[in-house]
# Entry
Amino acid sequence: MKRHTLTLLALLSIILYSCTSRPDHPTVVNQLPAIYPDYVEVTVPVGIAPLDFAMADDAFTTIDVTVKGSNGDEIHANGAYADFDIDDWHALLEANRGGQLTVTVCAEQGGNWTQYQDFIIHVSQHALDEWGITYRLIPPSYEIYSKMGLYQRDLSNFDESAMLVNTQSPGMCINCHTANRTDPETYLFHVRGPHGATVIHRQGQDELLKAKNEVLGGSMVYPYWHPGGRYCAFSTNATAQIFHIDKNKRIEVYDDKSDIFVYDTETHTILNDTLTMTPDWAENCPAFSPDGKWLYFITAIQQSYPTGYDKEMYSLCRVAFDETTGRIGHQVDTLINTRQTGKSATWPRPTYDGRYLMYTQADYGYFTVWHPEADLWLLDLESSETRPLDEVNSDRAESFHNWSVNSHWFLFTSRRDDGLYTRIYLAAFEDGKATKPFMLPQRNPKKYYRRQMYSYNTPDFTAQPVDAHPRSMGQAIESDERISATTMKMDK
# Structure
């Protein structure tokens, strides 16, 4: 019986091998392969999921790939796409930390094989300390929430799990999962709809705040945690939208008014400061410095909407913050002045080592996900020099971004793939320079991204998996139990 089993296995192996096409005397060409996703000359961290890829042209039916490390070892893949074994891929990266991988690609079309010029994948000496990433997946819609949810992804493989999907709370909008420095134990997110709330998870407990505050006149949005974990900065916005007839632009999101404030999670108090809640200016998109001593934000002269939407240009500013009292300082410093640039700055995100600050620049406005001209810019906080991240930017919208805790990696969303959906890209960063970004790896990526009809939104790193309980959280959201925050006016 055992001999028959071995014979059957051997026969099966022969059949499978004979069905797999292998390159035989390929035509060698002096050009790089056009692959999807484009991983040519990217830099990756040890431990990242395999960079599976296919030929960009569907006319190619088989691809044969060999990956050799500069410090030794190699792996091989053959099939409709390059599907690397996860363990072998990780071992190859670890063996070549600080080195590079040489990738040899042969592709078959109509029975003819072509061997392309080798390309390089660089392996960074800097680890990606985070376990994975979090993000929202949202369908293309403007008025109806449809199905959406908050998800987390293990960056070492392709495993994705839902933290909360609005099927647990039907008809609701779920957005802005925001952690404190990638900490899975301190985070918040918003729920919009009949049972709206701002959900704050801190010290093992969930608190559901009322979605709107009567004094603020709006919801708590665009949060950013103070590193100490007690305070969180928010914006409160009266948001509206208009639609373009220009085929290159679809929608414009603007605010009839907006202000920023600090929320004390221990006392459930909204600290309103007249310096950042002015009637004639629109303050927005707050972010604390990594030492907690500064609060960055953007501000623009309030326009007459909707006709003045393209005159709304934000400057990047900062103000001192005292965590012992929860008070902000008396003077606003302007770091990027729209009167000098003629552009609008938004989404400030400082590196966690405190040296740089990345922001998005667009022709106007702050909701840059719909702006094809939006690019990432870098501000050196020591020299005050600023520049576009040309090594990262594309001719389509670059929008939301965040840093890894060691400040050697960042991620961002971009529409560069197809012009329609935002995808996640990662890049290495050192000494003020970024490397060529690479798309979030997926198994069989061409099939995955062609079938993915959702956009990635507000991504961030997470140090460890978030211990999510979608069912019980959905029940809590459906209940009417909410905490009412008090308001304290802090005049100058």
Notes: The CA atoms of residues 305 and 322 lie 35 Å apart. Helices lie at 2-19, 86-95, 338-341, 445-451, 470-478.
